[in-house]
Amino acid sequence: MTSETVDSLIRYVDAREGGDEILAELREKLSPRGDLVSPRGRELTQAVFGKPLTPIEVVETICRDVQTEGTSALLRYTESLDRTQLTGETLRVPAEDLREAHAAADPEFLESIRQIRDNIAEFQSAIRHHDVTIEPRPGVRLTQRYTPMRRVGICVPGGAAAYPSTVLMTAVPAQVAGVDEIVVVAPPTRFGAYNQDMLATCHELGIKEVYRCGGAQAVAAMAYGCDALPAVDKIVGPGNLFVALAKKHVFGTVDIDSFAGPSEVIVIADSTASPAFIAADLLAQAEHSPGSAILITWDESIIDSVRSELQSQLAELDRSDLTRDALADFGALILVRDAEQACELTDSFAPEHLHIETADPDNQIARIRNSGAAFLGHHTPVALGDYAAGPSHVLPTGGTCKWAAGLSVNSFLRSGSVTMFTADATKAISEDVIRIAEKEGLTAHARSVSIRTEP
């Protein structure tokens, strides 16, 4: 059993005798089911499609039209949904625009971009898969090789804020992998494809293909290809519900990174943690709005201190109203029996971000299997990973990190085996192959071996 108190700021849950149902409820509220839409979204859907459609139906319609009609459908939906008229020629950002944005950029901003690029490249280079060859027996050579994808597409959001960090966290791992062609799509907005910082970042990284389109129509164009935007092999990067549903729809035609939903964090804390730090870390995720921000602690005294810090720090935030709403809808302060229960609850939730602010974080992380990215210690805020540390900030959400991994250099490598046998080695293994093949009734398989071993 659990007891729960909900106030106007954030709910408090005493989960010392349970708690799984609380996390399940929060997870369900954050689930990108695709059947919920805002009043403005319903109005836009009615205006564009002439009838009420669910987000899933909207995405299916857009993807079908772009697949069959190509560039004309891409431009039509860009005009009707983003209120921007473009042509096949103006869809792509000119190279001169990229150069001018870079030339006008703040030198200190560009220096930060270079430093972060180097941080990411250093980490991604260290974890990059490399070919492995073994020779288990004379005449047998077995290789697992890794080759980079030829062409990948990156979705960069641009609705409410600009995200040069997303360009870094997606493009640099692809470059370390050796991808030949990197395509960036961003909505035709002042935060997207017209944002000078984002364009300057692309130029600094050597990205030459940037397109003024977003949403499901951009995902469909990259998946199916059209005259104005040739198809890619994989689509990565965050986006709104329609981008997430479109990526899910085109998976199989192309690869994708994950089925991403709203951002989330669990903070595990004990008496050594600073309530001010904890509150700042919760607010950093709630700021995404929607964003799930959960504290799990076995120190009852810290709950009230964190609530007080949340209240005072909220007043200083630019997005305080949206952040407050996210705390009320998706936040929780959860009291548990001990560190063991904290780890068990966290593992069941499988959070995108996990921040362990305890005296012995190494002990806790060793007991937790499922997290997208973990941050250990009082001085390792999640924002370090969001912007500069080295691992990518593109991570699985919604509990999918139980089986999915965050984006990395290895996400852009495809793996295949290479096998080579000499005549003697083939003869040595032939009886086993022939015996199993004949048991399966595949006599042509057996014959392809026996023909090479007959006198």
From TrEMBL:
It is an enzyme of class 1 (oxidoreductase). Its cofactor is Zn(2+). It catalyses: L-histidinol + 2 NAD(+) + H2O = L-histidine + 2 NADH + 3 H(+). Keywords: Amino-acid biosynthesis, Histidine biosynthesis, Metal-binding, NAD, Oxidoreductase, Zinc. It comes from the Bacteria. Signal peptide: none annotated. The active site is at 352 (proton acceptor), 353 (proton acceptor). CDD domains: Histidinol_dh (cd06572). Substrate binds at residues 263, 285, 288, 353, 386, 440, 445. Its EC number is 1.1.1.23. PROSITE patterns: HISOL_DEHYDROGENASE (PS00611). SUPFAM superfamilies: ALDH-like. InterPro entries: Ald_DH/histidinol_DH (IPR016161), Histidinol_DH_CS (IPR001692), Histidinol_DH_monofunct (IPR022695), Hstdl_DH (IPR012131). Zn(2+) binds at residues 285, 288, 386, 445. Pathway: Amino-acid biosynthesis; L-histidine biosynthesis; L-histidine from 5-phospho-alpha-D-ribose 1-diphosphate: step 9/9. One of its GO terms (molecular function) is histidinol dehydrogenase activity. Binds 1 zinc ion per subunit. Belongs to the histidinol dehydrogenase family. NCBIfam families: hisD. Catalyzes the sequential NAD-dependent oxidations of L-histidinol to L-histidinaldehyde and then to L-histidine. This is Histidinol dehydrogenase.
